[in-house]
Amino acid sequence: MGSLKAIDYPPVWLAAFLGASWALGRILPLPGLPVTGLILAGCGVALMVAALVQMMLARTTFVPRKEPRTLVSRGVFAMSRNPIYLGDALILAGLSLYWGALLALPLVAVFVAIINRRFIRGEEAVLRQSFGAEFDAYCGRTRRWL
Length: 146
What we know:
The structure is a single chain. The protein has helices spanning 2-5, 10-27, 34-57, 83-98, 106-141. The radius of gyration is 16 Å and the shape is elongated. α2 (10-27) packs antiparallel against α5. It has one domain (32-141). Helices cover 67% and strands 0% of the residues. The N and C termini lie far apart (34 Å). By secondary structure, the protein is mainly alpha-helical. It is found in: Endomembrane system. Pfam families: PEMT. InterPro entries: Phopholipid_MeTrfase (IPR007318).
């Protein structure tokens, strides 16, 4: 089990879900929406990059299960408490559309549920412990996803 924990990170989950989506698109292809899909996936990448840059500028970690130094609540973090995970979901939805894997779109909801359970709950507990009332106020004005 210890070796599995070493790979239990959101990008690994995203890669697995992307693989499943791609496979569904090959096995049961439907007419896709390639332009819409690429725009959605591109927005997801842009959102992730913006969030990563903000976290790096704030000199805090973006690695799950690491101790944060700073509560980042401005920029893209004012729109969503989890812009990186939101970006992941947009990439999954967008590439599913691009690949014609419309039957894979429900996987986006499954991905979000797994990320909520495996990562966000724990991260929010650490943020609440580290930043207390400041984090609670942030939660009051910014939704978890959108």
